[in-house]
């Protein structure tokens, strides 16, 4: 990048750069973000009659394209340039066009100065740097492989096994000796004590099973030859039939002789080491019914519940395949959430709730201690819960140990609070920790770290961002739903990437907050619950009375308590959307788009399932604002007769059927969010067979292949959205198969890439491989964990205690 800057300065572009800099200086904003920069540059090109410079690939245009932020300081400009995914360079440009490279520290100081929080005379600020702790672990080199951690780790571990066979086989042997279930030894017993014995006995066992298969059959059940295998050192866990045991032993044999990444993955994935899983989601309103649609309880509840069900099913399948059924092995999955005494008609005040359709998956609710009954008896926002989490983890540990009758084998955290609790529990119980972010608030709120002090009363970001840093570094592995959640796209930074370097003025500087190239990151997207969401054409699985009832609710029912608006002509194409009524979900943007387009109104109706119909019914300020705005738009564009707004909270069965009813009417689904971390409704709509138009900002960019199995839209360009929908409708009118084609490819896309079966298989395989990696590199992580603990006690905890004082004095 410095060459690019130099070449601008050494060429004719120099004058343009000078004029541009003076335009920037004339701008009232001292801190320009990417959108501001692009707008300013476009205006600049217009003013100086430089035709579409951005597309002309001039050096100046390139520089602007890669510039994420510009900070004005005195007469200097500081350019923060991201020329490659996950890497950043910072330059200071002086008015006489000299260029100086700036260090991370200088950049953070500059940002502090901007908010009047730079006080060098008072001593230095704490600098948080996690980089030295990643020295021990391998890092991915190519950014395109970020998020494929496990593939990388398998290659790394198998090459170690190849290069240092003695040491690594010893680790493998020790690892195999480790596994037990309720005191019953699995895999190998003390007849195998050395590597030599392991290698020899594997060959003997292979010979024995080959013989067995020749005389009997591959299907011979394990129980029939269990004792013979035990005599040569092998305990249960290798397989349920002779053929499966042989397969597993062969993989191990090959791994010992010539280690290859596929063998390692395949072998470790078969090790029966996970029977008990905890999914931590503390902030509450976690239930199976009546909880969705409130602020904070959207996709995360759906995701965790589906994940729990599917993990339990997968664990049962794995136990069966490993040949452990005879040992009465019953896997158990617990969702750990918050018990809320004033549960407002939900089951959130119930300690234990069995998850429907499972044998042994539960929601375990543990209350926050009664520090302050006003807060701890009631639901409180996720932004307020930080003070209660440490003691919550202590209480939860006790209850988990009792429920499992021992330690769990894997702890999965969800969102900032769940990940912090997962860290505390994992540290205490010495269990593998996995993190899932869902949505990191840091990048969701503009300048959330720079102005954290102003926002602290409302959001308490100082605790949330500290918790995020601690938990993401402590985690053995992190799963993200998309690649861009980690490192963004070529022109936007990722959610995890935003933790790499930032200032919390007057609190600390983060110079290296997370190693984005670490193999701990793995992209494992969620699926959809296929029993509720399935293609509209599967008529035999649909309940006719539900279909009729929902059709009435969607198109004709008059019930002002829950539905607003009557349709003049219900035969028009329905444009459907369903989301919480948050500002960022931008349902009002979609209404505005519909209002502005007469053409759309001619051929379509707009049908929304969103929030509540009355301001008085909402206790969320954002939701109240959106309700008012939506009414205003309906009146402004006189959408009466063309819009239906359902302020209902649907059951899962109904939300599945509602997409299908819209598909029966050859409708479309639009998800117009300003940003969407992933977007479960998109999968739900697609699998139902609804052609889907979704925001290009966030996860949907990876789910939808534009024009193939859905369409991407820019939620800030309303005219363009309307045109894209109209173009689609035109095509459907010209070609009666077009709607079907997109519908079919949408369905296909979900079944091929976004199922819970794929998700749970991958997650469990990761848990095993990272469990092995954790085992072999444990001593190397202790220094990192000690550092994290120090930050927890010295930064997080005092702040959490101060917040508690505030709560108590309310
Ligand atoms: N949902 C619902 N009723 C509503 C709004 C949403 O059942 O009124 C469900 C929806 O079907 C989906 C989830 O809530 O399963 C929303 O998840 P998504 O990932 O799309 O968004 P989030 O709310 O998590 O931001
Ligand atoms: C939170 C979000 O904002 C959504 O985009 C996700 O789909 C959901 O969590 C589940 O991960």
UniProtKB/TrEMBL annotation:
The species this protein was found in: Brunnivagina elsteri CCALA 953
SUPFAM superfamilies named in the record: UDP-Glycosyltransferase/glycogen phosphorylase
GO biological process terms on file: sucrose metabolic process
Domain Sucrose synthase N-terminal: 11-111
EC number annotated for this UniProt entry: 2.4.1.13
Domain of life: Bacteria
Protein name listed in UniProt: Sucrose synthase
Swiss-Prot/TrEMBL keywords: Glycosyltransferase, Transferase
Ranges of residues in domain Glycosyl transferase family: 571-732
One of the record's GO molecular function terms: sucrose synthase activity
Reaction equations catalysed: an NDP-alpha-D-glucose + D-fructose = a ribonucleoside 5'-diphosphate + sucrose + H(+)
Sucrose synthase EPBD domain mapped to chain residues: 148-240
PANTHER family named in the record: PTHR45839, SUCROSE SYNTHASE 1
Enzyme type, top EC level: transferase
Residue span, Sucrose synthase first GT-B domain: 263-555
Protein family according to the UniProt entry: Belongs to the glycosyltransferase 1 family.
Upper lineage: Bacteria, Bacillati, Cyanobacteriota, Cyanophyceae, Nostocales
